Amino acid sequence: MERLKKALHYDRSTHPERTNATPERLFEILENVLGTKAQMHIQALTPLLGPPQMPVNDKQASQIVSYFDKANFDRNSLTRIIEQLEYSEISTAEAIALHHQFKIPVSHPEEDIIPVKGDGCWIMDTKGKWYLDMDSNYSATNLGMANEEIALGLYNQARTLISMKEDRIQIARTRFLKEIHSMMPEGLTQFYWQNSGGEAVDKALKIAKAFTGTTKVIAFKNGFHGRTHGAVAVTWNEKYRKPFGLHNSDWVQFAEFNNIDSVKQMLNKTGAKIIILEMVQGEEAGNRPAKQEFVDALWALAKEKGLVIIDDEVQAGFGRTAVKRGDWFACMSYGVVPDIMVIGKSFGGGYPVTAVVTKKEISEAMQYGYDGSTFGGNPMAMTAALIATRQMRERDITFNVVERSKQMMEGFKRLESTYPVVSDAHGRGLMVAFSLGNAENVSLVQKALTNNGIKASLSTGPYIRFLPPTIITEGETDYFLNKLEKAIASVL
Ligand code: PLP
Question: Is 201 in the pocket of ligand 1 (CB under 6 A)?
Fold first, then answer.
């Protein structure tokens, strides 16, 4: 009962991040756990409590506890009720309403699953239901949705030195620098840390412009690089650029992906010296890898013409697209080294930290005052990056990706041969997709997956995309493939 009291009336010394529970949340949980039997308890408790979304006070919390004491709930139900209160003291309805009321609507609000807790590749929602995660937050939570070691490191760091501006020497960053180099492509030794992928893409463009002394950039059709002004300007889909007047930026041209002649034509037309690409095009292309011949030709052209290649590995990096053990970045799997690489997403195991990484001679084009960042590479970010990247190496993530990728693609091929609606299964590592013919079918299958305990919300037109955590196990992959087949069979 002490645990119930703490979940209702939060203890600031142990959980300063919480508020007191609302009656609405308590009643929602009673319904989650007890079903129709909840009503009699809700009726008995309502007169004791205030308005639905008003957090309970100390007296009300005590009254709820004594009611529970007498009500004789079975142990299993009681544990589930307390657990759900501990993970959220606020109701699902209130969470949704406040988002609609106060959030600038830049994106479609996903309301079907409201996650409150992670455990490996699994997430629990406000209703106490568990889902296998096949999105990894766009590949940001490759090590799972919760991480004890990162939590402990961040707690220790926040207690000692929570922030430090970018330009001051600091120890957390030094620790990171002592450990990271074994993972990096050869020659990419110089780091500049940022807080989001888009920001790091912007800074990569600035570095390339400073080094070449030119401003023209060739990007690719179906490429995606983020939402900051510079990143949007080099992102292909006009719907992201046009509202902001970035659809006819005279410094960016788009070439055909996997078509070296198109790149040559653009170079001739513009005289550009800078190229930016995703080696596996994600968001806008449905996880479409570059062809080896194209990569080889592009690197040869860059050598011949003195071009600077920016490889955006924000999504593809940290083992996600491994083809063999040790392929920490897509470029390694293609056997090439870019001039500048952008990394992010899973870099901090879910904690926001990104970076531009480049060669020494390129980095030297940036002079004091050319850039700056208050939070770039702060001690919390560096601590998360140190622990996350160390875990990736210790857990042999690239090996797991290679094995799970084979298993996943075999499963997709089986679906292709059984269901005519499934086609064009493709991908690299654990950045995979297949077509379901049209976007409506994708939406139907995604809903069926959600109902069957699989969180899979990514798509590009007719393609359903998957980016499971790179720690996903063989059993979990089988479980997913099973549910996927059931979902397709049930709706298509
Ligand atoms: N680059 C690529 C390839 C991405 O996929 C993304 C995000 O999805 C970004 C850049 C932007 O990253 P962020 O959302 O952290 O700004």
Answer: yes
Among 219, 180, 222, 210, smallest CA distance to 317 is for 180
Pocket test for ligand 1, best of 345, 356, 457, 465 (most atoms within 8 A of CB): 345
Task: Tell me the CA–centroid distance for residue 343 and ligand 1, in Å.
Answer: 9
CATH 3.40.250.10 fits 148-394, yes or no: no
The string of pLDDT tens digits covering residues 305-362 is 999 999 999 999 999 999 999 999 999 999 999 999 999 999 999 999 999 999 999 9
Specify whether the CB–CB gap between 428 and 445 falls below 8 A.
no
Say how many Å lie between the CA of residue 280 and the centre of ligand 1.
Answer: 13
pTM of the predicted model, to two decimals? 0.97
78: left (phi > 0), else alpha (psi -120 to 50), else beta? alpha
Q: How far is the CA of 199 from the centre of ligand 1 (A)?
A: 9
Q: State the greatest distance between any 2 C-alpha atoms of the chain, in Å, as a whole number.
A: 82
If one residue of 234, 236, 310, 315 were mutated to test the ligand 1 pocket, choosing by the most ligand atoms within 8 A of its CB, it would be 315
pLDDT tens-place string over residues 257-267: 999 999 999 99
Q: Which CATH superfamily is domain 115-143+397-491 in?
A: Aspartate Aminotransferase, domain 1 (3.90.1150.10)
Listed by start position, the domains of the chain span 2-102, 115-143+397-491, 148-394
